[in-house]
Amino acid sequence: MKTGISNSSCRHSSSEMRAVVAGICRRLGKVYGPVEPPEQWPVLDELIATVLSQNTSDANSSAGYEELRRRFRDWDEVRRASPERIAGAIRQAGLANRKAPRIKAILQRVFEDRGELSLEFLRGLPARRAEEYLARFPGVGPKTVACVLLFACRKPVLPVDTHVHRLAQRIGLIGKRTSAERAHEELARLVPPKRVLEFHLQLIRHGRTVCGARKPQCPDCPLLDLCREGRRRLVAGELADSPS
Ligand code: SF4
User: Fold this and answer.
1) 134 and 220, same domain (yes or no)
2) Are residues 138 and 171 in the same domain?
3) Residue 114 and residue 163 share a domain
């Protein structure tokens, strides 16, 4: 695909960037197949699960979540439990002593705000207002907010996880030093709402298989000609000896 992007140093217009985003979705869709949207959970469940997923693997956070649900009858019992007891249940998710008081504080605040332990009302709010509401909770940053709104509410808010951040930097959709927090704002302007879920899930697939953190497999990459880092490595002759 011709995108008008010819070298690694020039700045590109937003329309060129949007063409790159469309090209990424189209090509990764061909390679990996269409994305399967994850199951929609109750909003509060998704929030607690996402807090547990911070700084750990999917397997560990799932194990922590399952154990939390197994040991406590409902969210109200978690809200009334000591942080130590919550930490004991979520140990496998890592950082238990930090996550447990956050979970308790979130549940307490939801209860005080809403008079019930439910965040279903967020589904009916505009995305921006729902973002503002969730961002007030302790330990809930832009990625956690975006995960909750995208996965539980199907609102077009893009989570910038480690894969999305790394690939967006390498491809050149954002600057090399753009923080993940800033990337949420910049990528929101480039990825059309109807493509947010697809873009997020496809970049994660690609980051886990071809464009890993330590050794990107550029010669095998369907995005090579769209990618700033891939083209730089090609021009520098760094791909010549790589297996294809
Ligand atoms: S060309 Fe290389 S750096 Fe760029 S997305 Fe593909 S694997 Fe990653």
Assistant:
1) no
2) no
3) no
Give the closest residue to 234 by CA, choosing from 5, 2, 8. 8
Please confirm, yes or no, whether 143 is among the known catalytic residues.
yes
Burial status of residue 161 (CB atoms within 10 A of its CB: 0-12, 13-18, 19 or more) = middle
What's the total number of domains in the chain? 2
pLDDT tens sequence across 12-64: 678 888 999 999 999 999 999 999 989 999 999 999 999 999 999 989 999 99
Q: What are phi and psi of 167, to 5 degrees?
A: -70, -40
Catalytic residue from among 2, 30, 99, 143: 143
Mean pLDDT of 110-122: 98
pTM of the full predicted structure? 0.89
Distance (angstroms) between ligand 1 centre and the Cα of 207 equals 9
Residue 7 belongs to a domain: no
Ligand 1 atom closest to the Cα of residue 170 is 3
How many angstroms is it from 221 CA to the middle of ligand 1? 6
* 227 and 212 share one domain: yes
